[in-house]
Design a protein that fits this description.
133 residues, alpha+beta, SH3 type barrels, 1 helix, elongated
């Protein structure tokens, strides 16, 4: 008898490939076990790299501990709340390629945010000078 997850969408079965959100990262995983409100999953690919820093103070570099968050390893097993699982469609890509692509996407996003902040700061400094006239 196969266990299924009772959700609004079609149920999952042990062995299904699912999209799992783990902290601030997202992974393609194999569903290994169901444990009440949680599921044990095995990581197959990285879909979104975890964010760095203090999750309780996002975008604040001036915190006592700026956390480094590594992506979960290939075949690493972790428990996930059932609500953090979704269907995964398509072929599961290579772990190493997805790990590098996810890290690059996170780097590009932070670079874009850094450039946006620099331009915004530049404009605000100019506006402040105009206001002070």
């Amino acid at each position: 008898m196969m266990e299924t997850i009772n959700r609004n969408e079609p149920g999952f079965k042990i062995g299904d490939v699912v999209r799992a959100e783990v902290r601030t990262g997202q992974y393609a995983c194999e569903l290994m076990e169901l444990n009440g409100p949680r599921a044990l999953v095995k990581v197959l690919a990285v879909l979104k790299h975890p964010e760095q820093g203090d999750l309780h103070n996002p975008y604040n570099p001036d915190v006592p501990m700026f956390h480094e968050r590594r992506a979960l390893s290939y075949t690493e097993k972790t428990n996930v709340l059932l609500r953090d699982l979704n269907k995964y469609n398509g072929q599961v890509p290579d772990y190493k390629q997805t790990l590098l692509a996810a890290a690059e996407a996170e780097i590009a996003g932070l670079d874009r945010l850094q450039r946006w902040a620099a331009k915004g700061l530049e404009q605000l400094i100019q506006l402040k000078q105009d206001y002070d006239k």
